[in-house]
Amino acid sequence: xxxxxxxxxxxxxxxxxxxxxxxxxxxxxxxxxxxxxxxxxxxxxxxxxxxxxxxxxxxxxxxxxxxxxxxxxxxxxxxxxxxxxxxxxxxxxxxxxxxxxxxxxxxxxxxxxxxxxxxxxxxxxxxxxxxxxxxxxxxxxxxxxxxxxxxxxxxxxxxxxxxxxxxxxxxxxxxxxxxxxxxxxxxxxxxxxxxxxxxxxxxxxxxxxxxxxxxxxxxxxxxxxxxxxxxxxxxxxxxxxxxxxxxxxxxxxxxxxxxxxxxxxxxxxxxxxxxxxxxxxxxxxxxxxxxxxxxxxxxxxxxxxxxxxxxxxxxxxxxxxxxxxxxxxxxxxxxxxxxxxxxxxxxxxxxxxxxxxxxxxxxxxxxxxxxxxxxxxxxxxxxxxxxxxxxxxxxxxxxxxxxxxxxxxxxxxxxxxxxxxxxxxxxxxxxxxxxxxxxxxxxxxxxxxxxxxxxxxxxxxxxxxxxxxxxxxx
Length: 474
Prior knowledge:
Elements: E1 9-10, E2 26-41, E3 45-68, E4 95-96, E5 112-114, E6 131-138, E7 148-158, E8 164-173, E9 176-186, E10 193-203, E11 209-217, E12 226-255, H1 261-273, E13 274-278, E14 284-288, H2 298-307, H3 324-343, H4 368-380, H5 391-402, H6 411-425, H7 443-446, H8 455-472
Antiparallel strand pairs: 1-2, 2-3, 3-12, 4-5, 5-12, 6-11, 7-10, 7-12, 8-9, 8-11, 13-14
């Protein structure tokens, strides 16, 4: 058994399967190929089966944005918790919400001011805290499953360099902490004045709550740190994975050389003209394929005849060579019969006193015109007497009658009849023109053998029967 694994990557992205932060948007295609080769020896042939399995994994990554979750229009917080700092969020220590010129560089609208001078640890675990503004935002509707990034922005105006201000965000999955991050926006001893700050915190896995805490200290109790226009956006990964498999099976049969070509031809004929039947026990039987009979009608035959133009050659008249002995024998029989007839007394012919006894002339080779004239003359003359058959005619009639009825249509009888007719007609030239019929060589057809397509099957069936009888004795 052979295994081959091959991989193909498109737009590689290593943040999978458990990303911590944002993945690169795009499509990742992973292709693995597994080849399984098996061989089975069946005695007469070796069957090799090759199964190729191609597994293609297509991963599509997009980055979704929640929008500003501190904007009341996005339905994550109420108007009292918005980032425009018109209302105090609540928290630890002292605070105020000045407006107009008291917000200095933050504008004339309201802003938030840190006024606490204490030095303690905040609810979220940040040290050096005197005042905090804090709230928790539920973002479970986003169904974040594959990590991402939380980004914030805040406007700060620190008038006293000794003051400090920080930004802290904690991510939760239920009650479990996913991430926690603190950025010191302006530390004590640093003169910053008005500044706009931006930051971010990466996370992985599931995120459904965000805790936002803004805190600091007013050390000199003059003008504490001021802030306004706070925004928090959650960017998260949406990953769709499609796995497809394509399985290809190829079977190869290698026939062992245990049959000679004649046997293989016979086997092919057996399968061509027979249906193979396998019963429940696994025994194999053959049933001849019945040919479909076509309905034959007068119309179909007529159409087939019209499709072909049959050229029938004119028959050649072949003169049959007749042995001289048969001719002489028949002439002798006719002569003997004539003598016999002449010796016998003939019947008296009844004629009129003035009529003359005439014999009918024998016409040998007259054309049709002369025959018609003779027939017309005979028709005009009144018949005076009944013609008596000649001795030659009587002899010929007797020869024909001697032929047995059962043998009347065999070759010898037919030849005798033809000779008698020719002798009566005095056509002496009948045997002058002769031709010989040449026999066709039939050896080529005699050497042909008809193969018995079912003989071997019968032998196999008999052999199997005998083997079953022998095995039955044990």
